[in-house]
Amino acid sequence: MLDYYSKGNPKDTLDLIVRMAYVAEIKEWDCRAHIERIRKYAYIIGNGAQIDRQTNEIISLATQLHDIGKSMMSDQLLREGGKYDDSERPLIERHTTDGAKILDGSASAIIQIGASIALTHHERWNGSGYPNHLKGEEIPLGGRICAIADVFDALATVRSYKQTISKEEALQLVLDSSGVLFDPTLVRAFKEQFTEIKKI
Ligand SMILES: [Fe+2]
Ligand SMILES: [Fe+2]
Prior knowledge:
The protein is mostly helical. It has helices spanning 10-29, 32-48, 53-63, 75-80, 89-103, 109-120, 141-156, 167-176, 184-192, 194-198.
């Protein structure tokens, strides 16, 4: 199935990609399951939005690399988990540009898309995101898909520093942000596929 590489064993390469992604997650909250869920959500969203199968596979695999730039963030900042003051904000935001720097220039399609997702997964549909305040379809498709998957997972999962809400409540918050924070077409696909999403 995976002929994205001209050389080497694709399975080895994929395994390495997932382990690279895991480096960033270990530091933050040691949850390999988070990146696994992001990949599955992304695949379901892309499928629902009728993205062609190969592109959808590449994007969903690449979403696992979204926070790889966090491997360069200080442990102290990572542990603060969401409660940052204004002076810390630029240090948090640079996990996007750091991630792109780590992944840029690869010959692998997955890692190329991974670089774009790392850079753009905090951009928001209305231009309120970071680092480049991109708007609408200026945000690459992978970044737009990953944004929904990542926010939904953050809302619906228990982390040490916050309460969790139900998947239905998390869905409602995503729906409320359609056309504001997220691509409305992708939010529609997310809603239509919610039975599948809930199984994850
Ligand atoms: Fe991030
Ligand atoms: Fe994440």
